[in-house]
Design goal:
five-stranded parallel beta sheet; nine-stranded mixed beta sheet; alpha/beta
Length: 397
């Protein structure tokens, strides 16, 4: 998008201060297309860290707020052409819902880290805040921003593989194979704390990514699941290894596996989708390659920037073929789409399949329903748990 004739979108940030990983990622992604300007933040509850973070980012000290509440009040008091327009939420999970609801009710758009909340009740409260505010709500399910994930979705949607029969999503990490959470490792410590991470550990952290990717690319909703949640590291309070059998609408079957104790694994997110005529495979650690397999002809390798890509795919590409691009660029694609909707005055994200689509409240509710269905099924005696039943029960409670 050419922003030469229009001002950049002013955004603030809660969390993501000195030493935080994901805050820096959001800032890099927002900066990549030159469409955003960071104007304020409440980066840390520690006053010194908050001040140093603002200084390092070149912000006016008056707009380095001690708390989110002061940020929202301070920005609302500024002239409209100076105040922030959107808030990026990059805190631990337990602050996602309170921050999102407060920002929406104060009249600001929200781009939030996932999972959207601690539980489905909080997710429904965010949904209500979105409805009454008329503001945009986005979620950084980053992997749906990769160009070849879009190519995979397009090819499934247009029927290249026929009716979909099989979906396999897996997300393998090994960084929690040892009890580093008990040794004070910051990222591990809060992710294994139920009060800050929510109902699921590995389930909420990376299982939601695998689930969202499976539904997004296949175009099918999971109707029911059968789950197994495990804690391998003694003394850990939340799951570090999960698996599920999935039943999709239309009869397709699936398997989901997410783990953070596969020692030696890095960031092994992989997706396979098969129909009656063939199928595809995509891996996050080789994101510029999409493998297509056919029943009646040799396999094909599709490359980012290569020939034959759909226009929705090429719109997400940033470099010529053979030039690596990945995580930051995919993240930036979501920020670019979110920014397009902000500029257009939209109140809901564009529909899936549109050039400027980004994950929003619908993806958030689906993934939080998945988390609660997994936990309910694993703890209970039922063989299968319906996702629609879980959501309906919460809505009627």
């Amino acid at each position: 998008m050419d922003t030469g004739t229009q001002p950049r979108i002013r955004y603030g940030m809660v969390g993501g201060g000195e030493g935080a990983f994901i805050g820096a990622v959001h800032r890099m992604a927002a900066a990549l297309d030159g469409e955003y300007a960071l104007v304020c933040g409440a980066f840390s509850s520690d006053a010194g860290r908050n001040r140093r973070s603002a200084e390092a980012l070149g912000l006016d000290s008056a707009r380095a707020y001690p708390t989110l509440e002061e940020l929202l009040a301070g920005e609302a008091a500024l002239p409209e052409d100076q105040r922030m327009q959107a808030l990026a939420i990059v805190t631990p999970n337990h602050l996602h819902a309170p921050a999102a609801i407060a920002a929406l009710d104060a009249g600001f758009h929200v781009m939030s880290e996932k999972p959207m909340a601690l539980n489905l009740d909080e997710a429904l409260a965010i949904e209500a805040a979105v409805a009454r505010s008329g503001k945009l709500y986005g979620l950084t399910f980053t992997y749906s921003g990769y160009p070849l994930v879009e190519e995979a979705r397009v090819r499934v949607a247009r029927g290249d593989f026929g009716a979909i029969r099989l979906v396999q999503a897996e997300y393998w990490q090994g960084w929690l194979s040892q009890p580093i959470d008990r040794d004070g490792q910051k990222q591990a410590e809060w992710r294994t704390d139920p009060a800050r991470a929510g109902l699921g550990g590995c389930l909420g952290d990376i299982g939601t990514h695998a689930f969202q990717l499976a539904e997004h690319v296949s175009g099918l909703a999971v109707e029911a699941l059968s789950a197994d949640l495990t804690i391998h590291v003694p003394g850990r309070r939340l799951d570090d290894d999960v698996a599920a059998l999935l039943r999709f609408e239309g009869g397709a079957r699936g398997v989901l596996k997410a783990t953070q104790v596969a020692a030696g694994e890095e960031n092994g997110l992989r997706l396979r989708v098969y129909g009656e005529k063939g199928g595809l495979e995509w891996s996050q650690m080789e994101p510029n390659t999409l493998t297509l397999r056919w029943l009646d002809r040799p396999a094909e390798i599709v490359r980012a920037g290569g020939p034959g890509l759909d226009s929705l795919t090429t719109a997400r590409l940033r470099t010529p073929s053979g030039h690596p691009e990945g995580y930051i660029e995919a993240f930036a694609n979501l920020y670019r789409s979110f920014g397009s909707a902000v500029r257009a005055g939209a109140t809901i994200p564009p529909a899936q399949g549109k050039a400027d689509w980004f994950p929003g409240i619908a993806d958030g509710l689906r993934t939080m329903t998945f988390v609660e269905a997994m936990i309910e099924n694993s703890a209970g005696a039922a063989k299968w748990t319906s996702l629609d039943s879980v959501l309906a029960a919460r809505r009627s409670a």
